[in-house]
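Weekly sync, protein design subgroup
Attendees: M.S., D.O., the rotation student, P.L. (late)

Item 1: inverse folding check
M.S. brought a backbone from last month's batch and wanted to see whether the design step gives back something sensible before we order anything. D.O. pointed out we never logged the input encoding, so this time it goes straight into the notes. Structure tokens as presented (456 positions):
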């Protein structure tokens, strides 16, 4: 049995980013994912916003890493083709109390190093977002907030890691931990994995894994966030991200465009005990309808094409929990929540600083170039629109999913990629196939046929 220098547990954005960083050194690295695909847990279902960190708690590790991650992921997106739209955001005040809070929010942003926020009056609010419901009293602009593809981000980082030599082990759920004098043996559902150092980036399962190392220091509470996704015809109604003014009850419900050309409303925030409860609820969707009617009544008359829910790993703290145990050669990353999308690469950089005191993390020479990812963004040229690509390869002109304009060439590329999908959900995240208004009703059988032939 091989003994890896480092085993990273969790193939979400944070774990993939760490594996990518460590894969750029001389260390041998394994990335273990409990599910059959990377990014199939918390990382796949969030609001997909590239955050400036303007509203983080000043002075926290989260504040620093979100701000750093915003710059790092922005640059990485340019290099890899991860789609990003710099839409900006607008916090809207609907009550006098919220209006009075805007100067404090701007000051908070400045303490976080973000100085571009501006307070605007009612007329400017409606000039920016004409279809808002009546009653807005003012707003705060956050021009740097952006929308991004969380699926492509996760896949790019994991692909980069594998290209750098990281061993990806899917379907490896850790069930036991045996810490030895020189290495730790991880018993998994697919056999044992041994490593000198172990990094816990297991998201919703981080506390259970931490307990296997003998700790009892935090509990993950799954916080369900449900969302409504509206048809692409609604996109003009949401030219930017519309944020509520935060309160003691949380950040509240937002209206946001998506990178795929839709508009979403959400999320809810419901603490659960079931870590697999990613289904939507009648109460949650009714709540979003009620909030959405007040925020943007015209949007509620548009067609809903999908509803979904994601679980955030809340730990009852307003900061990340990152801790290194040198005696056990073990590093914990907990409580990352939804900001992990933006902060993931900066978290990896921070982990590198901590591990650098114990391991040689000198970058290897001759690393491969970052992977170039397929574009899933509606605002950018897609293969079915690219006459040169179609002339070179007619498969890019053969549309299979008509709602999302996904071609047979794109599905083929996904199936032959460095990390091919293990199932149709993974294919959906790589191509947008079956992600449109019909949700696979018309194209599902054809997509499945191509998938099954391509995986035989």
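Designed sequence read out in the meeting:
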């Amino acid at each position: 049995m091989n003994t890896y220098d480092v085993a990273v547990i969790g193939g979400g954005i944070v774990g993939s980013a760490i594996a990518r960083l460590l894969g750029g050194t001389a260390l041998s690295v394994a990335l273990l994912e409990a599910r059959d695909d990377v990014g199939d847990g918390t990382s796949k279902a969030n609001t997909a916003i590239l955050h400036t960190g303007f509203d983080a708690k000043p002075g926290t590790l989260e504040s620093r890493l979100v701000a750093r991650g915003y710059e790092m992921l922005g640059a990485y997106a340019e290099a890899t083709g991860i789609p990003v739209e710099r839409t900006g955001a607008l916090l809207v005040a609907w009550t006098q109390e919220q209006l009075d809070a805007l100067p404090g929010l701007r000051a908070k942003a400045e303490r976080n190093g973000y100085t571009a926020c501006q307070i605007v009056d009612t007329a400017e609010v409606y000039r920016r977002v004409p279809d808002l419901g009546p009653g807005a009293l003012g707003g705060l602009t956050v021009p740097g907030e952006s929308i991004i593809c969380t699926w492509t981000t996760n896949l790019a980082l994991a692909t980069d890691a594998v290209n750098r030599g990281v061993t990806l082990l899917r379907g490896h759920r850790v069930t036991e931990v045996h810490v030895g004098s020189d290495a730790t043996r991880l018993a998994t559902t697919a056999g044992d994995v041994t490593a000198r150092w172990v990094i816990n980036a297991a998201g919703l399962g981080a506390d259970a894994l931490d307990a296997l190392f003998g700790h009892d220091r935090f509990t993950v509470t799954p916080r369900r966030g449900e969302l409504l996704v509206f048809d692409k015809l609604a996109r003009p109604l949401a030219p930017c991200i519309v944020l509520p003014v935060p309160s003691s009850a949380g950040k509240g419900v937002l209206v946001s465009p998506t990178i795929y050309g839709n508009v979403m409303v959400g999320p809810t925030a419901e603490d659960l005990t079931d870590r697999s409860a990613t289904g939507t609820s009648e109460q949650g969707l009714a709540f979003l309808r009620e909030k959405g009617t007040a925020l943007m009544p015209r949007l509620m008359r548009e067609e809903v094409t999908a509803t979904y829910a994601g679980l955030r790993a809340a730990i009852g703290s307003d900061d990340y929990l990152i801790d290194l145990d040198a005696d056990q050669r073990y590093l914990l990353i907990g409580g990352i929540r939804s900001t992990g999308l933006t902060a993931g690469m900066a978290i990896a950089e921070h982990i590198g600083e901590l591990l650098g005191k114990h391991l040689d993390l000198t970058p290897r020479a001759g690393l491969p170039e970052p992977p170039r990812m397929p574009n899933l963004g509606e605002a950018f040229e897609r293969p079915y629109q690219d006459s040169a690509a179609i002339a070179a390869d007619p498969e890019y002109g053969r549309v299979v999913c008509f709602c999302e304009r996904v071609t047979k060439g794109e599905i083929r590329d996904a199936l032959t990629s460095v990390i091919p999908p293990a199932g149709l959900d993974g294919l959906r995240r790589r191509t947008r196939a079956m992600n449109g208004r019909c949700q696979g009703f018309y194209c599902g059988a054809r997509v499945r046929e191509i998938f099954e032939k391509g995986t035989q």
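Discussion: The longest strand covers residues 304-314. The CA atoms of residues 23 and 165 lie 6 Å apart.
Action: P.L. to compare against the previous round before Friday.
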